[in-house]
Design a protein that fits this description.
- The chain is of the alpha+beta class.
- It has two domains: about 10-95, Phosphorylase Kinase, domain 1 (2-Layer Sandwich); about 100-270, Transferase(Phosphotransferase), domain 1.
- Helix content is about 35%, strand content about 20%.
- The protein contains eight helices and eleven strands.
- α3 (about 115-135) runs antiparallel to α5, α3 (about 115-135) packs antiparallel against α8 (about 260-270) and α5 packs antiparallel against α7 (about 245-250).
- The longest helix has 20 residues, at about 115-135.
Length: about 290
C-alpha cells in the first residue's frame, strides 16, 4: 500500500500512518505540530452496520477510555495527553509506544522463559493494580493488548472496553466485551465482573506467553467459552516455577482466586531468581543492569 500523505487533525496534529486496530478503533502514528513530537492517535471505528444508537455508545465508550486511562499513572500504562472531538468523531491523543505486541513476539519467536514471563506479568499486574485503585477495570487483558519495547518496557494498551466499577450506563447494545479465550468464567456467565476478572485474564495471557498457545482454544467462540467455564486448562508443560501462579490466577471461583498481593510477591520472586534459562535474547525490565 503506498504511503499516505499526512492528514491534518484539529489544526494541530498530523495523522501519518495506521499502526494498529483495537477493540474500539484505529490507532495512527501522528505528529504534534505544537510540541514537535511523535504521538499515537486513536480514532473511533466507523462500522456502517451499527445503528445510530450503537454508534453513539461506541463514541461514549471511546471518550470514557481517554478520561479513565488518564487517571491511571503507571509506567506500564500508555500516557493519555488529550481527548478531542473533530468532525463529530472522538480522538484520543496518547503516548506513542514503539514495540511489538506479546502476541507478535510469541508468534514470531515462540514461548518465552518462565523468568521473563514473570517479569512481564509483574509489570502488567502493577498496571492493573493502579487501574483497580482508581476503580477502573480493563476487561480486555490479552496478548494482543500487551506491548514490549526494545528497552524492556511492558505496556498494557487498549482500555477500549474499560469500565468504572458500578457504572452500568453503557451496557445496552450487547457489544463484544473482551476476547473469548481471555474472558474470566464469571464474566462469560454474566455472573460478576470485578478486579478478579482482570486477574484471570492476566493468568490466561501469561499462560500463552510461557506455553506458546492459549489456555483455552476451541474451534468456535461458543466452544471456547463453554470450555473455560466448565473445564480446567491443560496443565502447562513449560511454566516451571510459574505454574502455581498460573493455577492461582486461572482458578474458576473468583472468590478464592489468587490475590493481587500474593500474585505480585510470587511473580517478583520468580523474576528475581536466576534460572540459567535465558539462552535467547530477551528484552530486559526497565532499569535492569
Amino acid at each position: 500500500m503506498p504511503e499516505q500523505h499526512p492528514r491534518p487533525l484539529a489544526d494541530r496534529y498530523e495523522l501519518r500512518t495506521r499502526i494498529g486496530r483495537g477493540t474500539m478503533g484505529t490507532v495512527w502514528r501522528a505528529y504534534d505540530r505544537s510540541l514537535g513530537r511523535e504521538i499515537a492517535v486513536k480514532e473511533i471505528r466507523q462500522d456502517p452496520s451499527l445503528s445510530p444508537r450503537q454508534r453513539q455508545e461506541l463514541r461514549e465508550r471511546m471518550m470514557r477510555e481517554g478520561r479513565m486511562a488518564a487517571r491511571v499513572s503507571h509506567p506500564s500504562v500508555a500516557t493519555i495527553h488529550d481527548v478531542i472531538v473533530s468532525d463529530g468523531i472522538p480522538w484520543i491523543i496518547m503516548e506513542l509506544v514503539e514495540g511489538r505486541s506479546l502476541e507478535q513476539v510469541i508468534d514470531e519467536e515462540g514461548p518465552l522463559p518462565p523468568r521473563l514471563v514473570a517479569e512481564i506479568g509483574y509489570d502488567l499486574l502493577g498496571a492493573l493494580r493502579a487501574a483497580h485503585a482508581q476503580d477502573i477495570l480493563h476487561r480486555d487483558v490479552k496478548p494482543a493488548n500487551v506491548l514490549l519495547t526494545e528497552t524492556g518496557r511492558v505496556v498494557l494498551t487498549d482500555f477500549g472496553i474499560a469500565k468504572a466499577l458500578g457504572d452500568h450506563a453503557l451496557t445496552q447494545t450487547g457489544m463484544v466485551i473482551g476476547s473469548p479465550g481471555y474472558t474470566a468464567p464469571e464474566r462469560a456467565r454474566g455472573d460478576y465482573t470485578g478486579p478478579e476478572s482482570d486477574l484471570w485474564s492476566l493468568g490466561a495471557t501469561l499462560y500463552f506467553a510461557v506455553e506458546g498457545r492459549p489456555a483455552y482454544e476451541r474451534p468456535t467462540v461458543g466452544e471456547t467459552l463453554a470450555a473455560l467455564m466448565t473445564e480446567k486448562a491443560d496443565p502447562p508443560a513449560q511454566a516451571g516455577p510459574l505454574r502455581p501462579v498460573l493455577d492461582g490466577l486461572l482458578e474458576k471461583d473468583h472468590t478464592v482466586r489468587l490475590t493481587p498481593e500474593r500474585a505480585a510477591a510470587m511473580l517478583r520472586l520468580i523474576a528475581d531468581t536466576p534460572t540459567g534459562l535465558h539462552s535467547r535474547r530477551c528484552p530486559r525490565r526497565p532499569g535492569a543492569p
